[in-house]
Design goal:
This protein is an alpha/beta fold. Helix 3 packs across helix 4, helix 3 runs parallel beside helix 5 and helix 5 packs parallel to helix 6. The chain is globular.
Length: about 230
């Protein structure tokens, strides 16, 4: 079976000098959960941006779900993002004057058409069934992040890309959000999860460590499962 994501010798340069990615090659299987670790500036976010078709590489190849991303014009790249990818960030990026339900329905609007019932169900699945009419300012940080997760998954994307999604959360809300990610993984979603937290990364099927735009330590699922994933 072909990998869902296939990246070969992908390089991203800025101003012809700085290499955010330096000949990175990875493959990700359908339904796999991959954690990407590394210090600030190691290339983690750039890696996710490439897979989400938010940026173009300088060289290399990138196929996602049998689509050659490097061959797509901007309109088709936007369509790819709408149909294939759910994005979750450390900063919530919720529209402040829209309710939780309306923020989730906004993702439906850009995808195809809105469905209030489906949006409400997505919020119920992340434990916010009683908060659908609340504005972001009326929600806690953990609740806002769960709205973001509902928004990312309401269109049932194959791939969920999360960039430090627990970085602004306390330990209680982190645990709630991680439980949701486990449920998404068990439901068959493919997850790529950028994190600096070893406790979180050890919950994935596989860990990749980046440094100066390169992969320096890929860990196999067998190594990960042999480790202790309890919080230190």
């Amino acid at each position: 079976m072909k990998p869902l994501i296939s990246m070969k010798e992908l390089t991203k340069e800025y101003n012809g000098k700085v290499r955010a990615l330096d000949q990175v090659s990875i493959e990700v299987r359908q339904g796999e959960w991959v954690a990407v670790m590394g210090a600030s500036g190691s290339g983690k976010t750039t890696l996710l941006n490439m897979i989400a078709a938010l940026d173009r590489p300088t060289s290399g190849s990138l196929w996602v779900d049998a689509i050659n991303l490097l061959s797509l014009e901007e309109e088709k790249r936007a369509r790819f993002r709408r149909e294939k990818v759910g994005l979750i960030f450390q900063q919530f990026h919720l529209i402040p004057y829209l309710t939780a339900l309306e923020n989730v329905m906004l993702a439906q609007y850009f995808h195809s058409m809105t469905d209030k019932g489906e949006a409400a169900e997505a919020l119920r699945q992340v434990g916010l069934g009683e908060r659908i009419d609340f504005l972001p300012s009326e929600l806690s940080g953990g609740e806002q992040q769960r709205v973001c997760i509902a928004r990312a998954v309401v269109n049932q994307p194959k791939i969920i890309l999360a960039d430090e999604p627990t970085g602004n959360l306390d330990s209680k809300n982190e645990d709630l959000v991680m439980e949701i990610f486990h449920n998404l993984h068990n439901a068959g979603h493919t997850l790529l999860f950028v994190t600096h937290d070893p406790h979180i990364s050890r919950q994935a099927d596989r860990m990749i460590e980046m440094e100066h735009g390169r992969i320096v330590s890929p860990f196999t699922p067998q190594i990960r499962r042999a480790g202790n994933i309890s919080r230190q």
